[in-house]
TrEMBL record:
<dbReference type="GO" id="GO:0046872">
    <property type="term" value="F:metal ion binding"/>
</dbReference>
<feature type="site" description="Transition state stabilizer">
    <location>
        <position position="20"/>
    </location>
</feature>
<comment type="pathway">
    <text>Isoprenoid biosynthesis; isopentenyl diphosphate biosynthesis via DXP pathway; isopentenyl diphosphate from 1-deoxy-D-xylulose 5-phosphate: step 4/6.</text>
</comment>
<dbReference type="GO" id="GO:0050518">
    <property type="term" value="F:2-C-methyl-D-erythritol 4-phosphate cytidylyltransferase activity"/>
</dbReference>
<feature type="binding site">
    <location>
        <begin position="288"/>
        <end position="290"/>
    </location>
    <ligand>
        <name>4-CDP-2-C-methyl-D-erythritol 2-phosphate</name>
    </ligand>
</feature>
<feature type="binding site">
    <location>
        <position position="242"/>
    </location>
    <ligand>
        <name>a divalent metal cation</name>
    </ligand>
</feature>
<feature type="site" description="Transition state stabilizer">
    <location>
        <position position="266"/>
    </location>
</feature>
<feature type="site" description="Positions MEP for the nucleophilic attack">
    <location>
        <position position="149"/>
    </location>
</feature>
<protein>
    <recommendedName>
        <fullName>Bifunctional enzyme IspD/IspF</fullName>
        <ecNumber>2.7.7.60</ecNumber>
        <ecNumber>4.6.1.12</ecNumber>
    </recommendedName>
</protein>
<feature type="binding site">
    <location>
        <position position="371"/>
    </location>
    <ligand>
        <name>4-CDP-2-C-methyl-D-erythritol 2-phosphate</name>
    </ligand>
</feature>
<feature type="binding site">
    <location>
        <begin position="266"/>
        <end position="267"/>
    </location>
    <ligand>
        <name>4-CDP-2-C-methyl-D-erythritol 2-phosphate</name>
    </ligand>
</feature>
<dbReference type="GO" id="GO:0016114">
    <property type="term" value="P:terpenoid biosynthetic process"/>
</dbReference>
<dbReference type="InterPro" id="IPR029044">
    <property type="entry name" value="Nucleotide-diphossugar_trans"/>
</dbReference>
<comment type="similarity">
    <text>Belongs to the IspF family.</text>
</comment>
<keyword id="KW-0808">Transferase</keyword>
<feature type="domain" description="2-C-methyl-D-erythritol 2,4-cyclodiphosphate synthase">
    <location>
        <begin position="233"/>
        <end position="386"/>
    </location>
</feature>
<feature type="binding site">
    <location>
        <begin position="240"/>
        <end position="242"/>
    </location>
    <ligand>
        <name>4-CDP-2-C-methyl-D-erythritol 2-phosphate</name>
    </ligand>
</feature>
Length: 389
């Protein structure tokens, strides 16, 4: 089959509950470096073609991009994959990539290794890493023996297949399988081994969230060191203003700051976060907060502004960009910003998933001129830099 005739559909298996990861919510919907685990994974496959997400019945209405195809999963993983394969058939797939949604750090190189093998004629292909550690057996308390590690590999995803053979293999498979390579081999399908990546970890235990966050943040920041001739660099600016009203505190860049007034607004009136959000939307040529969260919509009344900023960051990710740095200036006579600037930077870092060292929050006055000089409100200006990821 000619490469141009290939149509890849990605199946993201997301029907599990992930209880070993802790945290209450299923791991795929938990926060990771400022957005959900699933959002990072979806962004990784944004350029490979249609995406099918196989969901648990409790999650069928969970927010996902409009382009995603939702299907209900089964009681076990292999049944969920079959549900995804059925949808992929409907979408006209010639080949499928089956990926654990809890592997958010998968790289373009790992994905390309699988798709290239399939384009070269392989029926099935999957990434793996050679086992480098010594292997032991144990009775649970003591070491009882060793095993030869020669020829052993650690399995990863995405695992790619020509859709007809893998669908037939699943139809003839009974019981549960560790992965789809096991299903393929049960039907005697040859599976080409492609190169895996140490960073392509599967989030399984609570500590895996911290490791995955470090990997993703390091990647976002490394974008600034790439060859500029191969990058798309975007700058955006934002401006916002809110008047004072009765109250005893203001919310600025996600931090509650004591003050003898509050800020008036349809949401929580976080003037700093609004300016930053508009800067990201501006860099993407996606308008402003009002386009995405109309003030005429009552559901956003009193909303916390991190919802808006998180949406802007997720939109950037889906469009293939990472936020490289943020600079925000708050313009007011009072309250004093300096004592709270560090906490504001930390909160913005948590939401956006970038390092604190790439976020600036500072303040200035207008020398008692204008509405800010008359202490009638607070203004904010912000700049955001996006780089192609």
């Amino acid at each position: 089959m000619e490469e141009s005739a290939l149509k890849f559909v990605t199946i993201l298996v997301a029907a599990g509950r992930g209880t070993r990861a802790g945290g209450g919510l299923p791991k795929q919907w938990r926060d990771l470096a400022g957005r959900r685990v699933a959002d990072w994974t979806l962004a990784a496959f944004a350029e490979t073609g249609p995406v099918v997400v196989v969901l648990h019945p409790d999650d069928i209405d969970i927010p996902l991009p409009d382009s995603v195809h939702r299907v209900l999963g089964g009681a076990i993983r292999s049944l969920s994959v079959k549900c995804g394969l059925t949808k992929a058939w409907e979408l006209g797939a010639t080949h499928v990539l089956i990926h654990d949604i809890a592997r958010p750090c998968v790289t373009p190189a790992v994905i390309a290794g699988v798709t290239s093998a399939l384009a070269d004629g392989a029926i099935a292909a999957a990434p793996g890493l050679p086992v480098s550690d010594a292997l032991w057996t144990s009775d649970g308390e003591t070491i009882t023996g060793t095993r030869d590690r020669g020829g052993l590999f650690r399995a990863q995803t995405p695992q790619g297949f020509e859709i007809g053979p893998i669908a037939a293999a699943h139809d003839g498979f009974e019981g549960e399988a560790a992965d789809d390579v096991e299903v393929a081999r049960s039907a005697a399908l040859p599976v080409t081994l492609t190169e895996g990546d140490e960073d392509n970890i599967k989030i399984t235990h609570p500590a895996d969230f911290d490791r995955a966050a470090r990997i993703l943040r390091a990647r976002a920041q490394s974008g600034a060191s790439k060859d500029p001739s191969t990058m798309d660099i975007r700058l955006g600016n934002g401006y916002d203003v809110h008047a004072f009203c009765d109250g005893d505190h203001v919310i600025l860049c996600g931090i509650k700051v004591p003050h003898d007034r509050a800020l008036l607004g349809h949401s929580d009136a976080d003037v700093g976060m609004h300016a930053i959000t508009d800067a990201i939307y501006g860099a993407l040529a996606e308008g402003d907060i009002g386009r995405h969260f109309p003030p005429s919509d009552p559901q956003w009344k009193g909303a916390e502004s991190h919802i808006f900023l998180d949406h802007a960051v997720q939109l950037a990710t889906r469009k293939g960009f990472a936020v490289s740095n943020i600079d925000c200036t708050l313009i007011c006579e009072a309250p004093k910003i300096g004592p709270h600037a560090g906490a504001m930077q930390a909160e913005l870092a948590r939401i956006t998933g970038i390092e604190v060292s790439r976020i600036s929050v500072k303040a200035t006055t207008s020398e008692r001129l204008g509405f800010t000089g008359r202490k009638e409100g607070i203004a904010a200006i912000a700049t955001a830099t996006l780089v192609s990821a």
